[in-house]
Amino acid sequence: xxxxxxxxVIDQRRLSFLDFGGPGRAxxxxxxxxxxxxxxGPLAEALAPRWRVIALDQRGHGESxxxxxxxRADYVADIAAFHxxxxxxxxxxxxxxxxxxxxxxxxARHADRVTALVVEDVGAVVDADWSxxxxxxxxxxxxxxxxxxxxxxxxxxxxxxxxxxxGWRCAFDIDDTVLSHQALSxxxxxxxxSVACPTLLIRGTDSPVLTHDHAxxxxxxxxxxxxxxxxxxxxxxxxxxxxxxATTVRAFLSEQPTP
Length: 259
Description:
The protein has eleven helices and twelve strands. By secondary structure, it is α/β, with parallel strands linked by helices. It has one domain: Alpha/Beta hydrolase fold, catalytic domain (Rossmann fold, 3-Layer(aba) Sandwich), CATH 3.40.50. The strands form three sheets. Strands 1-2-4-3-5-6-11-12 form an eight-stranded mixed sheet, sandwiched between helices. The protein has a two-stranded antiparallel sheet with strand order 7-10. Strands 8-9 form a two-stranded antiparallel sheet. Strand 8 and strand 9 form a beta hairpin. Helix 1 crosses helix 11 and helix 2 (72-86) packs across helix 3. The longest helix is centred in the first third of the chain and has 15 residues, at 72-86. The chain is globular, with a radius of gyration of 17 Å. The chain starts with a strand and ends in a 5-residue tail after the last helix. The mean pLDDT is 97.
């Protein structure tokens, strides 16, 4: 199936998304900082044809427009409006990192709209380090120069590389990303504990973001059926271990009843 790019206007701002198509049941996917909807391409391919992945370029990311604020409530309101725009009933929601917090906060505050939840490598308490974002190069003369300036993390950010009139840059604005990181930090236990739908928490065994002990506590304090899967990866599990990640997500989704 061809991948379709669509958009919706929310509060006079355009949000872009990718619909990976197919005849299957819809799943909403939410990326993390520095990423965009396209990172879910491999997962969408692995889940097809049973599942149809629809991934949002969240505010200030990818092809979506910048926003004046990046507070927690802003992201959740965007997801609610996006979900409504699609005209879908309740669906599973997948989120990585910042998108994972967005996903479980959406599930907590709109319980009737989420049937199942996959949260990838993020905790109920977040201490986001925005020093990396603040130190990113704002422009480089070539794509190669931009990758070189970013260093070892470049493979994880290359989906966001864009060519501009004055060189190469990342699709997201660095100052906006710092603000978003700052707003992400905090104690989100009340939202996590409010989630009642079946939940899969995925952790990378080498993750510097989510510890094993914190992940186990999240499973214990979850209100509904929840499980933890730890895969051999760092923070970006879907990129470090794509086959294992897809197999784990597919198995979890296959257990969910057809509405």
